[in-house]
Amino acid sequence: MNISSSIENKIYFSKYKPDLKIGEGSFGKIYSAHNINNGELFALKLEERNNKHSLLESETYILCYLKGEGIPYIKSYGFSGDYNILVMELLGKSLEKLFQENKCKFSLKTVCMLADQMIKRLEYIHKKYFIHRDIKPDNFTIGRGKNSHIIYLIDFGLSKKYKSSKGNNEHIKYSENKKLIGTARYASINALKGCEQGRRDDMESLGYVLLYFLRGNLPWQGLKLYKGDDRYKKIYEVKKNTPVDELCAGFPKEFNEYIKYTRNLNFEQEPNYDYLKKLIYNIMNRYEFNFDFLFDWGLNKNKFKFNKKIINENENKKKEKGSNDVNINKEELNSVDKNKKINKIENNKNIIKNYIKTEIRKKQTKTQFNKNNNNLNTKKTNIKKESKLNKDFTNKDRMKKIQFNNKTSDKQKNTKNIFNNSIKNKKDKIRNKEKTTTKKNYLFKKKDDEIFEKLLNTEPNMKDVSFINKSQNINLRSPKHYKFISELNSTEKKNSEKKNIFPTKKELMPIGLNKKINEDNKDDGCFIF
């Protein structure tokens, strides 16, 4: 069973599963992986745990310390089985792969745009007191998705601190007879010589990378070696003996100045990053290039190919006349042939500008179209949501109204019933009272009638009657306690004649019932009605 297949079948940290092998180096292997839970993409760096000095451990420390634009972020670090594993941001293709896919040719514009970002990455690292020591096209990659225009610097396994960030900020000491650390093709002359590396060596090796993109190869590349020959010494001799003018021939003078400046720096001297970036900006302004991030690998090769003959013609004319400027003076060209050549150059430039403008417009239109579609979709979804909400709201309102009406009707019915019941109760009470009173009166009259009938039977002279009370407590119902007098005054007769023959209720009321007689009437011993 292959080792790669065994790695791809495993799941590391119970989350990350490797998909494909991306690269391989002295430290180990790199795989693209995905998170099982989320589906997010990451890069896995695997290193065997048998090594005494772990490069991945030092790289994780440096990446956590550097954190910034153009530097990949770390997700996690640990070990599983026989491997140390670093989980980090997944990036796009390296510049070496893109260079090979583009038939080992990059246009001047792409090289200038790359140089600007690459100088910025090294400046950022040097200000954090670190040197890379392995500058090459494989260690520069592009981003993915929205970050596809950003150039990333990777592989900090061979990086080193050249100055302490604490205390007196002392620089590391110069020393010789050291082994080469890095790639010999792009290493500086001092590094191949065996000197301690510093900031100047990173900047010099970056200059060789830029010339490699312009030329397609370097003079010390593909040397023939015999038995017993030291490869590094051979590259050192060729690199030292090739003059800078020959190395940068056919290209703008700013690259010549770049190499000369970086080679003349001292060990502890800080490079002037602004000056180096200004050299690149001068080239962009001279050829009227824009920082539109339209690299060669992003353009359609059939429609547009950068015409490198324009630069070569300008450089050849410069050599013939001995002028230092690359631009052609139109005033000196009077002949028809030279004017035609200038017109061809200008036409080619105009074609390039128009093509770039059209591509930018296409991108803008695509983005606007996508935005409009997104807006329409969001509007439709919002309208649907609003309609649903309105329906729900209306249904709720209807239910509330029905419930409210039912409640009000119930309340009204209850109030009406209560009111009617109260009236009925009142009427019933009144009726009961009337009945009781009528019954009492009826019984009272009956008893009075019985008494008078008995009196009429016993006493013959009962037409003119007056009652005299002889005792204090008299029972009116017994006829023994009354004395009847036949003669009455004339006024009393008239009143008795006007009224009914029988005495009224007031006249028949008991005189001394449960009451004491007044002290004034005690002496007389009687009370007259």
Describe the structure.
By secondary structure, the chain is α+β, with helices and mostly antiparallel strands. It folds into 4 domains: 3-89, 2-Layer Sandwich (Phosphorylase Kinase, domain 1), CATH 3.30.200.20; 95-293, Transferase(Phosphotransferase) domain 1 (Transferase(Phosphotransferase), domain 1, Orthogonal Bundle), CATH 1.10.510; 328-458; 459-521, no CATH class. The chain has 13 helices and 11 strands. The strands form 4 sheets. Strands 1-2-3-5-4 form a 5-stranded antiparallel sheet, sandwiched between helices. A two-stranded antiparallel sheet has the order 6-9. α4 (108-127) runs antiparallel to α10 (273-286) and α6 packs antiparallel against α9 (253-263).
What fraction of residues sit in β-strands?
Answer: 5-15%
In which order are the strands of the major sheet placed? 1-2-3-5-4
Q: Biggest β-sheet, characterized? A: 5 strands, antiparallel
In one word, what is the shape? elongated
What's the SSE pattern?
Answer: HEEEHEEHHEEEEHHHHHHHHEEH
Give the helix tally: 13
Through-space gap between termini = 143 Å
**Domains (count):** 4
CATH homologous superfamily label of the largest domain: Transferase(Phosphotransferase) domain 1
Helix/strand-derived category reads alpha+beta
Low-confidence stretches: 300-309, 324-334, 461-491, 511-529
Write down how many β-strands occur, each being a DSSP E stretch of 2 or more residues: 11
Please identify, by name, the CATH architecture of the largest domain. Answer: Orthogonal Bundle
Which CATH class of the largest domain? Mainly Alpha
| Average of pLDDT | 77
In the CATH hierarchy, the third-tier topology of the largest domain is known as: Transferase(Phosphotransferase), domain 1
What percent of the residues sit in helical stretches (DSSP H or I)?
40-55%
Rounded to the nearest angstrom, the radius of gyration is: 61 Å
